Amino acid sequence: MSMSRIVLYYTFTPLPDPEAVKLWQHTLCRELGLRGRILISPQGINGTVGGEIKAVKQYVKQTRAYAPFKDMAFKWSEGGAEQFPRLSVKVRPELVAFGVPEQVEVDADGVVDGGKHLQPEEVHELVEAKRAQGVDVAFFDGRNAMEAQIGRFKNAIVPETETTRDFIAELDSGKYDHLKDQPVVTYCTGGIRCEVLSSLMRRRGFEEVYQIDGGIVRYGETFGDDGLWEGELYVFDSRMNTTFSPQAKTIGECTHCGNPTSTFHNCMDRGCSTLQLYCEDCRHIPETTRCETCRARLQQDPGHPNSGRLEKVRRG
Ligand SMILES: [Zn+2]
Ligand SMILES: [Zn+2]
């Protein structure tokens, strides 16, 4: 039994002096021997840190002693300091990088005018109540499109996003305007991206926007694969995917042959971080395990240096 743990947490609350919070958090973590990643912004804090249980408990206690963080929820998880290469504490203009810090207003209660929070059970209640009125609830994926390739809510809308920044152009393109007078449930891995996304949608005239408290993770812990979720969950650590039960469906398709797979592989070109799904049979074929962009470039410049690299990679 490991005597170490990890905690994950975030809160949206105005921080007038993020640099001071950074110094305090950095010192606190160093003294307690914790490692991990902490992001601080004028909008709040988001972190994942790990270490000895006693030290993590002490960290939680001391962090909550700062008034703006006193109600912050900490999610405990297996793991420890060794899961992180180092301690990183950074100040950024936004807690989630949508690229529009000026469009996000935060007060002591969190993001102003965000989507209504739903507990996992309430997601089902909403869908049923709306169905009784003859109205469909739209599920709107708040992640990068790639993540949705292996798992998503059934019939979800998956915007064309390579990074979180792409949501702004997507929302402003008009292609989702038909949802503006419909109930929309936004969802993402742990809920933080939707805190902001749902408020950006509200700001753009989407009238009835919801978000799932705790995101897909909480929903999956509650309903496993017996609810409205389908497939595997992409995660930003060395595991890459997780499932909620052994019955999880494989909905991803091999980029080459179309066979079911949930395994992402890096484009074989060195320096390209594109992830693509390949089945076990196709993952070694050099002609195909290069992403489209790199293949096009190679046709123009056959001498381009590349490697046969095809290992799993992290992408945050
Ligand atoms: Zn294949
Ligand atoms: Zn590539």
From TrEMBL:
Domain Rhodanese residues, every copy: 133-228
NCBIfam families attached to this UniProt entry: PRK00142.1-2
Family recorded in the similarity comment: Belongs to the TrhO family.
Swiss-Prot/TrEMBL catalytic activity: uridine(34) in tRNA + AH2 + O2 = 5-hydroxyuridine(34) in tRNA + A + H2O
Stretches that traverse the bilayer: none
Keyword hit for Cytoplasm: no
Keywords: Oxidoreductase, tRNA processing
Name of the protein in question: tRNA uridine(34) hydroxylase
HAMAP family, alphabetized: TrhO
E.C. no: 1.14.-.-
Top-level EC class as recorded in UniProt: oxidoreductase
Known role: Catalyzes oxygen-dependent 5-hydroxyuridine (ho5U) modification at position 34 in tRNAs.
Family annotation (PROSITE patterns): RHODANESE_3 (PS50206)
Gene it is expressed from: trhO
